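Inputs:
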Amino acid sequence: MLDESISALPWYVNATLAEPERADIARRLRTEPALRNELLFWEELAATQCRHMAVAEDIALQRTLDRIQLEERLQSTTKPAGWLRSWFAQGRSRPMSWLGPALAGGLVVAVAQFLLPDRPPHVDTQLMRGAPAGVARPTTMGVDSALLRVVFDPATTEGEIRLLVAAQNASIVGGPGAGGEYYLAVPQQRVIAAIDALRTTGAVREVAGVESLPPTRTGAQSN
Amino acid sequence: MSAANIHAAARPIHGHGDLDNATASYLLKRVADKDQAAFVTIHRAMGRRVFAYAMRLLGDHEQAEEVVSDTMFEVWKNPQRFDGLSRFSTWVIGIARHRALDRMRSPTRMIDGAAVEIDDALPDDGPSLEEGVAAQQREGSVRNCMDKLSDVHRECLHLVFYEGAPLVEVASMQGCPENTVKTRLFHARQKIRNCLRLMMISEGHNRPKVVHHA
């Protein structure tokens, strides 16, 4: 069983005790040297605890603002355009409101089939500089994907990386680069959750959204 | 100890300006309207404190910065979750706690970051703490010993002395009864005392002998 006064000393030091308790300890401190010694010890710990923490006021501020901007960009790209929303909104108030969008959609499909050649759509893929063949072959990136640049902890195995990537419904579209960075394509609607999840794995050193893959270094694939 | 008295008396003792709940609520309302200037104000008020807390737990600058960013991003996304029942700083540190614990649970950290536990049952027959340690070495030694405490003891000391948190809030944040918090601090104190004694003994053994010539 701890002595009540001794066990309350830390809160006497941080000045958060209720007045009756504070007064009681103050009274005992006047007569009990042992309690005074305890107080000195706690005060020393408190002083040490508060030192050595000189940190810039803007610590991580830019990083947080970047995340906010990334989220806002993603939200604006996933929402339908204003004119489209208003057009559909007007359409809902008319009789047979489904007819307009259906006809428009059918027309677009018909025109597209007529104009496009009979071959798979071209997808811009890129092999990252320094990427050894067979380690991380670039895969495709859809139009509704966001791009993340991820640096994994060097101790993370390839298998672990693949598991982490799969868990986020992501795919590796580039890397590893010279700095060990990978580029992941992540569904737009999952990108914030994926960043959060990757950050908390402990296997990821850096993760950030990027606009595009870096340019391929000339000659990187020749050897 | 009544909660009302505690809240009235609560103040951080680290010297940083604290955001009172009324100001914080006002700023959070503006944040809910996506006002970045208000958010920057909150970030500047709390960023260092979250960093200090995360650094104390994780001991890694980069990870501590990530905890700051994660925590403040959560504030940006969900400002309405602050109910005003606790201090604003307690709410924010509570978010940081979850983020830091996520990182501490990661397998790589559990292997690399195993804390060196100090025995808190060292016999009390060593040199006294008040003798032997030079003042300029003393602070470094105390810091070293504090760093060797377990995560939960380090967190407890930080919340009490850096955050200036009342007992009831420390218990709430650590998810344990108030008596457990007191016991944790008691053991932390014992471990630090014993660690200091061990350091003094070790330094005594390693100190080169000075030969006085007559």
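DSSP finds ten helices and no strands in chain B. Flag for discussion at group meeting.
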